[in-house]
Write the structure tokens for this entry.
Amino acid sequence: MRNGGSVRQRVLLSVVVALVLTACGGGGESTTTAPAATASAGPTATAAAGKLSTCVLTLEDVKRLTGVAFTEVDDKPDESSPNCGYRIPPDLGNFFYVNLDRYSGETAKSVFAKSKGPSALGPRRQEPTDLPGLGDEAFWYVPVPAGTSKEDEVRVEIRRGRDIIQINVRLIGLPQEKEFEAATKGAKEVLAKLPAD
């Protein structure tokens, strides 16, 4: 009887330890946002199971580009449209997003050409302006803020081969020129680190 209870206690203890480790992030795969140490460990453009991550910039990279100390990386790898957000929770006003859409063959060219059209981008405060020297072709614009937000953001869209990459930057209280600078410099760094397909 005593040995049976001891075995049950060890099994119960093992289950409890496994649950605690999993809850604390010590085992299994985490589905929460990456902690700063992981995000700063070094950029990688590939994730598990063949999915592509666009979190190729570290928190330090984004701080250097924007002057804002972002504290959270939200990596959403996906096979067709991965995106990565750098934020300061719970404040979602400041952000730096990297989105990627991967198309087949010549589709990227036609999608990108249409994306500059008035119906594709929705309401804008500034019309698209070409950005030579980024990828195969690129432009930037300022959309009308969505929802209840009154703050502008700058968007840079780049086509490189069959990839369309979008960088969205909003830095509350800073001039639009700073957002534009952060978005274009960030786009160059993302292009350098994100593997071409």
